[in-house]
Specification:
mainly alpha
Length: 217
């Protein structure tokens, strides 16, 4: 009888642990950060990046709420993007305006848009021919991202921007170019993905190498 009661108590304890682990008790801190981040986003970001974060704001704004983008960057990347901005563009540096806690809350809110974690097939080494990459860039990227990556209003990110190149890895640029950002004008470019452009891995690697060469040392 005692063994039966002991087993019954064990089951009850396990049930309580499962209920607690499935509850929001341990997520309350993150929930608070997300709620605070939403207020900051509405106040500072919605005008450019849009209410849903898909770049549908009244002014120029990159689409942040795409699973490809969110799967390719870390929270630290997002933090740096917001803190340092993009000099010479409409994206200001929020470091002087927001506290460290505010920046982290804003990152938590943006990260909460991620509903899946995508895997990308990326070359281990991204090192190509910048001259060939320039030719490829002028053929396939210039129309939206401008000559030498200066960017175009409401069309494409300024790829030669010093803050963009400083806080974005070659791997991330490669993923953006190859896989694009769903539900935006930036469609996939890698051969076999069904995009308008059907580029080989080498083509994309050369383009990324050219974009990296625009970084001023």
């Amino acid at each position: 009888m005692k063994k039966i009661l002991f087993g019954f108590y064990i089951l009850i304890i396990i049930g309580i642990v499962v209920c607690i682990s499935n509850s929001d008790i341990f997520d309350s801190k993150n929930s608070e950060a997300i709620a605070a981040g939403e207020k900051l986003y509405t106040k500072n970001c919605i005008f450019c990046h849009g209410e849903t974060g898909k770049g549908e704001g009244a002014k120029t704004g990159t689409a942040l709420n795409t699973q490809n983008f969110l799967s390719s960057i870390s929270d630290k990347d997002l933090y740096n993007y917001v803190k340092y901005g993009r000099k010479g563009t409409v994206m200001p540096a929020y470091g002087p305006r927001l506290s460290d806690k505010d920046l982290k809350n804003l990152v938590a809110y943006i990260r909460d848009w991620q509903t899946e974690e995508k895997e990308f097939d990326v070359p281990k080494t991204i090192s190509g021919d910048p001259e060939r990459g320039k030719t490829q860039y002028n053929l396939y990227c210039l129309n939206c991202h401008g000559e030498a990556g200066v960017g175009k209003d409401k069309m494409g990110t300024a790829l030669s921007n010093p803050q963009y190149l400083k806080y974005t890895t070659d791997k991330q640029i490669w993923i953006d170019a190859a896989y694009g950002r769903e539900e935006t004008r930036m469609g996939p470019s890698l051969k076999g993905l069904g995009g308008a452009r059907q580029l080989k891995e080498k083509d994309i690697t050369d383009i990324v190498t050219y974009i990296r060469s625009l970084e001023k040392k």
